[in-house]
TrEMBL record:
This is Inactive protein RESTRICTED TEV MOVEMENT 2-like. Residues 116-135 are annotated as: Disordered. The lineage of its organism: Eukaryota, Viridiplantae, Streptophyta, Embryophyta, Tracheophyta. PROSITE patterns: SHSP. It is a single-pass membrane protein.
């Protein structure tokens, strides 16, 4: 007699790991607390639309899993995003910032005479004078 076992459907417990974003001059760093996860249980993908997808799953009494989709800013050098585990439980994802040379920055167009007059009236000092009580 041939007995076939039917595999029970895996049960998942979804959770959202705690995370923190650290902003620095050259790059931003996203830190995830993934206590109990191994490097092989975590997956990081960057979509063509600029969404960084971080997911993982591991067996416990049920399978634990998470997924976090993070839009990547325009000033990020997407080809140099890197990730590594620190202290065996913190996933550290670095987003290097694009370095734009001075000659590639957008130049501000000069304002017209009317726009310049309006801009001059809206400085803090001018507003303070206008709001002063009448004597």
């Amino acid at each position: 007699m041939d007995i076939k076992r039917v595999a029970a459907a895996q049960e998942y417990e979804d959770f959202l790991p705690t995370s923190m974003m650290v902003h620095e001059n050259d790059y931003d760093t996203l830190l995830f607390n993934l206590t109990g996860f191994k490097k092989e249980q975590v997956k990081i993908q960057l979509s063509k639309t600029g969404i960084l997808k971080i997911s993982g799953q591991r067996p416990v009494y049920k399978w634990q899993r998470f997924q976090k989709d993070i839009p990547v800013s325009e000033n990020c050098e997407k080809s140099k995003i890197s990730a590594r585990f620190v202290n065996s439980n913190i996933l550290c994802v670095k987003y290097p910032k694009l370095i734009i040379s001075e000659d590639k920055k957008i130049k501000k167009l000069p304002a017209s005479a009317n726009e310049q007059a309006t801009m001059e009236k809206t400085t803090l000092e001018d507003n303070a004078d206008q709001n002063a009580p009448a004597k």
